[in-house]
Amino acid sequence: MKKFIYIASLCMLTGLTACANEIETTTIKIENQNIKIDKQSQTENYLTIRTDGKEKIDLTWLKEKALYQFAAIADEQEYVIFLFAPDEQNRLSNENSTDGNKGDQLYTGHYTMFLAEKDAPFAYKQEVMEGLGELTFNASSTQVYPINIGGETVLTMINSSSKPYFYGIDSGEIKNIPMNEQILPIIGKEIKAINQKFIQSVHLYGEKEWMFTTWKFDKESMTFIKHDETVVKGNEGENWFNLWNEKKEYFFPFQNLELSSDVIDKAKQGIPLGSPYPIGTNIANIKKSDSKFLEEGTTYVMYPDITYYFDDATGIVNAVSIPGERMKTNLENIKKLFGEPAEEVNGKDGKRVIYQADKYRVELMINPDESVESIYLRKK
């Protein structure tokens, strides 16, 4: 039987994807074997797991029988999470279905979670999955995996209908992490973690409308709160999704900047909006600090939410651009903040608006509906 063992590493700082190691082992299940599951004795006391009234099971046995097991971290404590079904059955799929393709190895049963401290002798049953009924997992698909949010492990489970569930460890037990708004079925099986604070999901909205939804994790309330949502239509949306799906470092840019009237004053100093690096920084230093760029050309390096342009001879950055999705504003608001521009040039796909900033200039690419497509800071 195939088992899945994952390690949620402490060193995973970017959190863009689940850090997972899959190990295949073979075990023999003994039919009708009775395994004693005791109620936790009131005399036993563990500091980091709630054990009162919870069934416990021998960890050595559980490691052999659980379908999934994950190393996890919560409040700087190390745990192991197990997913196990006493009635588990495995079979090969004989047709293409929502569970998988023909020939895939499927595991079906009434699964529950067990929680153990690292190196402890017992794991304790958690009630968090009660009511979900029978579940099916496909050995060829990553349906359960940990993601790292702010140094904490969030366990993600995607059912065969592409509905995601999220779980975290709080006060010594595994709890469901709800969303403050309903989440639609996702495309594929992946949820991405971003910058230790957010997760991002993708949904097919309508026939060919791709919805990128970003959720912020509130640790105090153990809730994911919808932070931003963007719908991209047609071929453009499909291209965005393909890039999002193919590159683990990629995420769709989302609103995380507030425009203010001092943008022009900062631009006069060569400080771009939304970047920690001013104009004049060597691109080698930026790449050394953040190696998770998506694409590199002879004169540019592109990250998911910012692009740096540089002189190919010296490597000195001379322009920076950020996508409009990070601000979600329009030309009317721009003019309220910055005043009338020095230039406003119309084109067939919108217009280009320019503000002068001493040795630099701020250029805004404006869509036909007057929303901001992108902002550039360039050295003259």
How do the helices and strands line up, and which of them pair or pack?
Blueprint: E1 4-7, E2 38-39, E3 55-58, H1 59-65, E4 68-74, E5 77-84, E6 89-92, E7 105-109, E8 112-117, E9 122-126, E10 135-138, E11 144-149, E12 152-158, E13 164-170, E14 173-176, E15 192-194, E16 198-204, E17 209-218, E18 223-233, H2 234-246, H3 263-267, H4 283-289, E19 295-296, E20 300-303, E21 306-310, E22 317-323, H5 331-338, E23 343-347, E24 350-357, E25 360-366, E26 372-379
Parallel strand pairs: 1-4
Antiparallel strand pairs: 2-3, 3-9, 4-5, 5-8, 6-7, 7-10, 8-9, 11-12, 12-13, 13-14, 15-16, 16-17, 17-18, 19-20, 20-21, 21-22, 22-26, 23-24, 24-25, 25-26
Protein name: DUF4309 domain-containing protein
Signal peptide: 1-20
Keywords: Signal
